[in-house]
């Protein structure tokens, strides 16, 4: 079984330690999008607190949701492509830096290896995600995201709708997802509260 890539926690921590004090601390309200640049000057974001989602610009498919401290915008420093968008899912706290300040700090502190580790993690996360959904049947895709949702904290599951969670990440039709989760609930593989919240996974067929 292919496992998710391991988060490079030490590299991220070193980058945050150096970059956070150099940026402007910003509070971002829920559902607000973050811009990648201002006046053509790229931004890098040090994500500190809250819950942030990353989606594709082309079709708004949700790639991932982040709750741990992280760095966004490193690849955007080198490429004009803005293929992803960032959105606050809850109240978020970030440090926002301009491209030239990030580059100078990375050079000064010898952090290019840490940058490479973070970029490799992003690439491998995308590859892992694609393996779960590209050219796969609907049933295993739904089961994958049910397992993923079940691992979230209870307070998160209380506000996350199962159908929306899967649909945002896959683009599968509402009816196909509902048919599968209804069947799984009938067969007592899963349970959830009224409205499709508070998922419980007891066991799922492979």
List the main descriptive attributes of the protein structure presented here.
alpha+beta; Arc Repressor Mutant, subunit A; 2 domains; 206 residues; 4-stranded antiparallel β-sheet; Jelly Rolls; 11 strands; 40% helix; 7 helices; elongated; single chain
Describe this structure in words.
This protein is α+β, with helices and mostly antiparallel strands and 206 residues long. It folds into two domains: 9-133, Sandwich (Jelly Rolls), CATH 2.60.120; 138-201, Arc Repressor Mutant, subunit A (Orthogonal Bundle), CATH 1.10.10.10. It is 40% helix and 25% strand. Strands 1, 3, 4, 7 and 9 form a five-stranded antiparallel sheet that branches. A four-stranded antiparallel sheet has the order 2-8-5-6. It has a two-stranded antiparallel sheet with strand order 10-11. α1 (9-19) packs across α3 (112-133). The longest helix is centred in the middle third of the chain and has 22 residues, at 112-133. It is elongated, with a radius of gyration of 19 Å. The mean pLDDT is 93.
Largest sheet at a glance? 5 strands, antiparallel
How many helices? The count is 7
**Ends apart, CA distance between termini:** 12 Å
The CATH class label of the largest domain is: Mainly Beta
Order of helices and strands: HEEEEEEEEEHHHHHHEE
Structural class per helix/strand content?
alpha+beta
């Amino acid at each position: 079984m292919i496992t998710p890539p391991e988060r490079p926690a030490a590299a991220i921590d070193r980058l945050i330690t150096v970059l956070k004090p150099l940026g402007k601390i910003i509070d971002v309200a829920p559902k607000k999008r973050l811009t990648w640049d201002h006046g053509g000057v790229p931004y890098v974001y040090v994500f500190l607190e809250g819950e942030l989602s990353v989606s594709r610009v082309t079709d708004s498919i949700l790639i991932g949701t982040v709750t741990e401290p992280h760095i966004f915008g490193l690849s955007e420093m080198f490429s004009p492509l803005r293929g992803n968008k960032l959105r606050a899912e809850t109240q978020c706290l970030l440090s926002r830096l301009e491209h030239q300040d990030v580059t100078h700090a990375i050079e000064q502190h010898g952090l290019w290896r840490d940058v490479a580790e973070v970029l490799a993690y992003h690439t491998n996360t995308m590859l892992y995600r694609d393996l779960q959904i590209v050219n796969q049947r609907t049933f295993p895709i739904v089961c994958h995201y049910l397992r993923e949702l079940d691992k979230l904290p209870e307070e998160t599951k209380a506000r996350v709708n199962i159908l929306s969670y899967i649909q945002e990440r896959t683009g599968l039709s509402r009816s196909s997802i509902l048919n599968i989760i209804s069947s799984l609930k009938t067969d007592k593989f899963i349970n959830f509260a009224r409205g499709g919240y508070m998922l419980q996974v007891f066991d799922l067929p492979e």
